[in-house]
TrEMBL record:
NCBIfam families: PRK11770.1-2. PANTHER family: INNER MEMBRANE PROTEIN YCCF. InterPro entries: Inner_membrane_protein (IPR052937), UCP028777 (IPR031308), YccF (IPR005185). Pfam families: YccF. The chain crosses the membrane at residues 6-39, 86-103. Residues 4-54, 69-119 form the Inner membrane component domain. GO terms for cellular component: plasma membrane. The keyword Ribosomal protein does not apply. This is YccF domain-containing protein. Keywords: Membrane, Transmembrane, Transmembrane helix. The keyword Transmembrane helix applies. Signal peptide: none annotated.
Length: 122
């Protein structure tokens, strides 16, 4: 099921979402201050390509001081908009029974979009 889900996901928007994350990450890496955020955006873009069959894993150092600071900055500057996008698409997908698995993936990615530092999709 995850192979079929990932193929359908890529065809109907997952590829574009992943590329958008990666382009945003590369543009953030242009500045020295934005490098950690750009690398995390690129990581999120790669995770967005194939979300089926994966779960959000919290790393042991997820609640470190630096991770919390980066998560707060990310949340205020980037995360709320990306998470809102995943929320809207998840709600739209949840309208139909066929869209429920895709809505679940959007809600999973919404967690990563809000607080990406110290978490990964694997």
């Amino acid at each position: 099921m995850s192979l079929v889900g990932n193929i359908i996901w890529l065809i109907f928007g997952g590829f574009i979402s992943g590329v958008a994350y990666i382009i945003g990450g590369i543009s953030l890496c242009i500045t020295i201050i934005g490098i950690p955020f750009g690398l995390k955006a690129i990581d999120l873009g790669l995770s967005t390509f194939l979300p089926f069959g994966k779960e959000v894993i919290e790393k042991p150092a997820a609640n470190s001081t630096l991770g919390m600071i980066f998560n707060i900055i990310w949340l205020v500057v980037f995360g709320w908009g990306i998470a809102l996008n995943h929320l809207v698409w998840g709600l739209i997908m949840a309208i139909t029974i066929v869209g429920l698995p895709f809505a679940r993936q959007h809600f999973k990615l919404m967690i990563l979009a809000l607080l990406p530092f110290g978490r990964e999709l694997s």
